[in-house]
């Protein structure tokens, strides 16, 4: 149910504001398998974007999302909210998400931990949660690049939507089979590099 709701919601919302999409790399993803999707996070549009994921997904998002009219009710019932300022709550939310995934849903996480960059499109350092989840479940991790959302829907108090193509790039899945928690730093660095390199294909570093 949530899979179709997310897909309809994403397509309808972007059509309504005339935002075209370009989704690449979906052919690398097997709908019947589970993944942990890791994406850069510069805009609230990033959440909507995962309505285009090839398989059913579970989000871990900040608790304030649950307060958005209508959407918040759906998010609270179907996904997992987290208080990012509370270390204990972050751990509990991750464990809840792993349990709620079961053996059918994939997990969407934004390893920056929120929209924190003050120098977009540069990312801030990644947190461990997404990588720990992938290793604990022994499922592949998929880096995902959203290079344009920060321009389309800026993270400001009164944003104006810019009609620009929303690009979403699914990279090759990275196996976590046989990895343990000592491998988190190297895995985190690898994923950061993949997404960072892709972003700066479109927006070269100065």
From TrEMBL:
Pfam families: Acyltransferase. Keywords: Acyltransferase, Transferase. InterPro entries: Plipid/glycerol_acylTrfase. Residues 35-149 form the Phospholipid/glycerol acyltransferase domain. CDD domains: LPLAT_AGPAT-like. Pathway: Lipid metabolism. This is Phospholipid/glycerol acyltransferase domain-containing protein. The lineage of its organism: Bacteria, Pseudomonadati, Bacteroidota, Cytophagia, Cytophagales.
């Amino acid at each position: 149910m949530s899979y179709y709701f997310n897909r309809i919601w994403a397509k309808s919302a972007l059509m309504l504001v005339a935002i075209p999409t370009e989704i690449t790399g979906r052919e690398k993803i097997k709908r019947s398998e589970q993944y942990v999707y890791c994406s850069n996070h510069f805009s609230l549009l990033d959440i909507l974007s995962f309505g285009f994921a090839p398989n059913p997904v579970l989000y871990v998002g900040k608790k304030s999302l649950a307060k958005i009219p209508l959407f918040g009710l759906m998010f609270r019932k179907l996904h997992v909210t987290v208080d990012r300022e509370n270390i204990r709550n972050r751990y509990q939310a991750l464990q809840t998400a792993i349990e709620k995934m079961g053996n059918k849903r994939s997990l969407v996480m934004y390893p920056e931990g929120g929209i924190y960059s003050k120098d977009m499109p540069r990312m801030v350092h990644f947190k461990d949660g997404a990588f720990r989840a992938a290793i604990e479940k022994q499922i592949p991790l998929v880096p995902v690049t959203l290079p344009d959302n920060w321009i389309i829907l800026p993270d400001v108090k009164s944003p104006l939507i810019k009609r620009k193509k929303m690009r979403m790039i699914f990279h090759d899945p990275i196996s976590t089979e046989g990895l343990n928690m000592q491998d988190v730093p190297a895995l985190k660095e690898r994923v950061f590099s993949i997404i960072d390199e892709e972003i700066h294909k479109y927006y070269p570093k100065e």
